[in-house]
Write the structure tokens for this entry.
Amino acid sequence: MIARITRDEVDYLPDIQDNQEAEELNAVNRQREELVKEETRIKNRLHAKLIQINPEYKDRYGKLCNKGALKKIEIDFCKTKDILEKLVLQDVKLLKNIIEEIKNLEKMLLEKQKANPLIQNLTTMDGIDTITACKLVGIIGDIDKFKSPDKLASYAGIAPVEKSSGKSSKKFRNTRANRRLNTAFYTIALTQRRYNEIAKAYFIKNRMKGRPKSRLCIVL
């Protein structure tokens, strides 16, 4: 379905889609992904330190992604002479900066969406937000290089590769697929499974038949 919509809207794309536009979307998305990983790493490190200082720290601060929580930590530890607490303050500072950088990158993607009808169209589908839509368009680039939705599905790793040997043939997972695109499609399927009634009904029906979750997500 996503491949079909992308192909239907190809006339809206500028001629430089496969170069400048796609490269810009990819650059912003990749940087955001790297910062999100770094954000998680620092949160885990901060959590480990706070657990050492106070195992019940969540009762006071709550979630570490909350601005209010980080502010409370800064206030509580601002006059500390303890080395561990000073390291906590350093992590809080890093975390606040990264959260702000991620927000700025997401604003860039939102501006891209406003200027690109294809991205706007993709976000009307269940499971596709601005970030995911920009990722799809950035990775796929010029849709004309895919002769059919099946070719795009193969590139994304959601269509099996058939290998023949004599009179028999078997289907295997495409190990040469674009992993970032595959992850994007898989995330969309997981969201649709929860919020799209048709997808939810299909998933429940086939899970009751014993079919594996990963296989059903590929179908979705």
Observations:
- The CA atoms of residues 30 and 135 lie 9 Å apart.
- The chain has two domains: 2-142, 149-219.
- The first helix runs from residue 2 to 8.
